[in-house]
Amino acid sequence: MSRRPIWMERPRLVERLAQGLILSLVVLLVVYPFAEIVSTSLAGQADVDAGGGLVLLPLHPTLRAYQVVFEGGAVTRAILISVGVTVVGTLASLATTVAMAYALSRPILGSRQILRMALLTLFFAPGIIPSYLVVKQLGLLNTYASLVLPVLLNAFNLVVVRQFFMAVPEELVDSARLDGAGDLAILLRIVLPLSKAAVAVIGLFYAVGYWNAFFNALLYLNDQSRWPLQLILRLYVIQGAPLPGVGSYVTGQAPPPPESIQMAVVVIALLPIVFAYPFLQRYFTKGVLSGAIKG
Question: Considering the domain boundaries, does residue 18 fall inside one?
Fold first, then answer.
C-alpha cells in the first residue's frame, strides 16, 4: 500500500507540541507590547515609578491620562482630521482604482501603455523635492488635499483589482450588453458584486495607509492646527515634543505621568484599526484565497 503524502498525514505529538509552543511564543510577542502600552496608559505616577517607565499590571488604574489628552483639544481635533482624511481619501482612492482597473481590464485602445505607465511608479518613485514642487505649483500646500491627491492611486492595488476584474466571466458581460447595459451598469451590477472581496481588501489597504500616514502632513502642512493624529503622535511620543493643549489638569488632582499620556495617545491611534480589522477579516481571507486558487 502506498504511503499518503506528507501533508495528509496526522502530525505526531511532538510536532503538535512544537507547533503549539511556537504559536504561543508568537502570540506572546504580539500581545505583550500591546498589553504593556494599554497598562501604562492606565497607570498612575506611583505605578510608573515602580515599573521604571512602562507598567504591565497597574495597581491603581485610572483614566486620568485619557481625560487630560481629550481636555487639551489638540488630540480631539487631530482625530477628527485623521478620520476625515481617511474616509474621504479611501473613498476617492477606491473610486479611482476601481474605475481605472475596469477600464484597463477591457480591450480598449492604449490600455497596455497606460498600465505600463502605472507600473513605472512602482519602480521609479518620485523624489521628495519634485513631489513638493508639484504640490506647491498646484496650490495644495497647507490643504488637506495634499494628504490625498499625491497618493490617490496605488499601482499595486490597481493591478490586483484589474486581475480580479479580468477573472469575471466574459459571458456575463456579453449577456448584460445584449440586455442594453452600459459599462457603468456592468461595473456596478455585475463586476463589483463578484469582486467585493478584493475591493474590501484594497479598501483596507488604503484606509490603513491614510490613517498611518504622517510624512505628507509633515512635508505639506505648516499649520499645526491641521495636523492629523499620526503626526502629533510622532512628534510627541517619538521626539518627545510637548503636545499642544495637553498639560492642564483639574485643580487638586495630581497630573498623570508623561509616560501615561504618551501611551494613551498611542492607544487612541491604534483603536480604529483594531476595531475595523475584525469586520474586514473575512473579506481579506476570501480575497487572498480567490487570488491564489484558480479553476
Answer: no
The SS3 of residue 258 is helix
Identify the DSSP state of 188: I
pLDDT at 148 over 90: yes
Output the CA torsion 203→206→207→209 (10° steps).
160
Distance, CA of 48 to CA of 69 (rounded, Å)? 18
Distance CA 78, CA 70 (A): 11
Classify residue 16: in a domain, yes or no: no
Which of the 8 DSSP states describes residue 295?
A: -
Pair 165, 194: CB distance under 8 Å: no
The answer to whether 161 touches 205, Cβ cutoff 8 Å, is no
Q: Which residue has the cell 505639506?
A: 220
Q: What angle do CA 83, 70, 226 make, to 5 degrees?
A: 45
d(CA 187, CA 168): 11
Instruction: Establish if 198 belongs to a structural domain.
Output: yes
pLDDT in tens, 227-253: 898 888 887 776 666 665 555 454 456
Domain assignment present for 53: no
Instruction: For residues 20 and 31, give the distance between their C-alpha atoms in angstroms, rounded to a whole number.
Output: 16
The rounded distance, in Å, linking the Cα atoms of 105 and 198 is: 15
Is-contact 216 151, C-beta < 8 A? yes
CB–CB of 201/157 below 8 Å? Answer: no
Residues 6+ apart with CB under 8 A from 85: 144, 147, 148, 210, 228
- The parent domain of residue 107 ranges over 73-292
